[in-house]
Amino acid sequence: MPAYNPIFGHLLICGKILANLPTDANPHYLPDQTRLAVPGLGPIYYLDNWPFSAPILVTASPSTAYQIAQEHSLPKFHAMRKFLRPLTGEYDLVTMEGQLWKTWRAIYNPGFSLTHLMTLVPQIVKETAVFCEILQQHAEAKDLFEMKTLTDNLTMDIIGKVVLDSNINSQQSENVMVTALRRQIPWLSFGAEINPIKRFNPLRPLVHWYNASQMDRYISLELEDRFSHLQTSGKSYLFKESKSIADLTLNTYLADKTPEAIAAGMDANFKSFAISQIKLFIFSGHDTTSSTMSYVFYLLGKHPTALQRLRNEHDNVFGVGTPLGSVICDKPHLLNQLPFTTAVIKETLRLFPVVSSTRAGEPGYSVVDEQGRFFPTDGCLVWSIHHALHRDPAFWPQPDAFVPERWLAEPTDPLYPIKGAWRPFKFGPRNCIGQELAVLEIKIVVLMALRRFDVEAAYEEWDLLAGRKGRRTVNGERAYQVLLAQPSDGLPCRVKAVQR
Predict the structure, then answer these.
(1) Which candidate, 285, 28, 292, 282, places its Cα nearest to that of 148?
(2) HEC states along the chain?
């Protein structure tokens, strides 16, 4: 592990590393920056940052990630519950454990099966067409704007259909629930902030309560509307054809209810539970996908050769001058014939992973490294940090370069990815339930938007207009990841129509 101070632990070295990062940089940069600062450190080590966090066991290798997520799935670290509670209340699929988690994961799996998701393609195309028209307005205005705001609105409209089977329409109008959710996100906390004003802000509970009440009221009305159909139609009116999260939840609740129980109304405890799950899926199902979309635009804007290869692939599969939206809706299977587009998405997620995994250590359980050394986990936050793994030259040739070709390489090629080294959606029983949806959305958006527009990041202009001072890059990267792994400053950019 890094040099240890008997009084300050690792606070001094971590403080020195953080001082060289932008103040809003995502905490997942710390392990990789520590690796760079301490040669020979290796992919697994302890960090003692008491009193700001529990002892941390950093793991950043394929084998150690496999051990804690697949071979012996450690429970979620308690700080994740603290972070999500203002959004999801007491119970959600991310922090549930044991049989309760298994039961509800099985209930929700059909809502994210690829077969069902393909039925959503027309809706995704419809929302993406709106997104493209908004881009057209920006192209005509030649203005500077934040791409992340636009992709947030787009993915919010898509996940609204998946979760509520409802048209949220946040791309074209304000939505009460969406506004409250976005107000809530900057106030979320793991309780580990170094700045005491941020860590113990007395306004946080009030802000959390107000925003949560706004979201709960909106979702409650949606649930009551569905439930009222059941009360008037009888138990035979179950949502047999619908696989929205709301309807899957209601179907499970109603499975053993008598007509009299349905007539009496929805149980308050159940409603609270259902609202928690819906808020979780809306939050996690829009923000991470939105960030990845933004980074795809960013990276392709910096790599015109890759962009041209991507467009050539789209033309070969979907034709030139075709009504692209109609073709996608009529032949959605063609989305599976885009190997280079898939490679671009995978490489984007390697360079800018949107999550890591925080687990709670257990008495008697140790992680074993490649040299056979044992690292006890009891009392530790076990942090499987995907950013550090994805950027480690021990596992990736050219780790900091955008090389989508690595995903098309043969097994004998040095670029061929090591098994288990790519973990943006995690592996094991608790992998991301929405990964198929995320990739499907990104493919369609990239297809429809980049056929019509060039996107170019405009950070230099943005910083000049905003009078930015201080450190604004991580390893020379201006589009570094901030809270929730979003691109810094929302990815300021300009777009222009493609002349074809």
Answers:
(1) 292
(2) CCCCECCCECHHHHHHHHHCCCCCCCCCHHHHHHHHHCCCCCCEEEECCCCCCCCEEEECCHHHHHHHHHHCCCCECHHHHHHHHHHHCCCCCCCCCHHHHHHHHHHHHHHHCHHHHHHCHHHHHHHHHHHHHHHHHHHHHCCCEEHHHHHHHHHHHHHHHHHHCCCCCCCCCCCHHHHHHHHHHHHCCCCCCCCHHHHCCCCHHHHHHHHHHHHHHHHHHHHHHHHHHHHHHCCCCCCCCCCCHHHHHHHHHHCCCCHHHHHHCCCHHHHHHHHHHHHHHHHHHHHHHHHHHHHHHHHHHHCHHHHHHHHHHHHHHHCCCCCHHHHHHHCHHHHHHCHHHHHHHHHHHHHCCCCCEEEECCCCCEEECCCCCEEECCCCEEEECHHHHHCCCCCCCCCCCCCHHHHHCCCCCCCCCCCCCCCCCCCCCCCCCCHHHHHHHHHHHHHHHHHHEEEEECHHHHHHHHCCCCCCCECCECCCECHHHCEHHHCEEEEEECCC
* The two structure tokens encoding residue 494: 């300009």
Beta carbons within 8 Å of 137's beta carbon, 6+ residues apart: none
- For residue 300 the two structure tokens come to 């392709």
Q: Given CA atoms 162, 166, 171, 176 in this order, what sign does their dihedral have?
A: negative
User: Could you identify the residue written with the tokens 């799935």?
Assistant: 73
Residue 9 Ramachandran class (φ > 0 left, ψ -120 to 50 alpha, else beta): left
Exposure class string for 274-303: b at 16+ Cβ within 10 A, else e:
bbbbbbbbbbbbbbbbbbbbbbbbbbbbeb
The CA distance from 32 to 48, in Å, is: 16
Global pTM? 0.93
Q: Which pLDDT value is given to residue 444?
A: 97
The Cβ of residue 97 has, within 10 Å, a number of other Cβ atoms equal to 12
Reported as a single tens digit per residue, the pLDDT across 152-195 is: 999 999 999 888 888 899 999 999 999 999 999 888 888 777 67
Tokens of 96: 């549930």
Tell me if 249 sits within 8 A of 92, measured CB to CB. Answer: no
Listed as ranges, residues in the chain with pLDDT below 70 are 194, 230-231, 233-241, 500
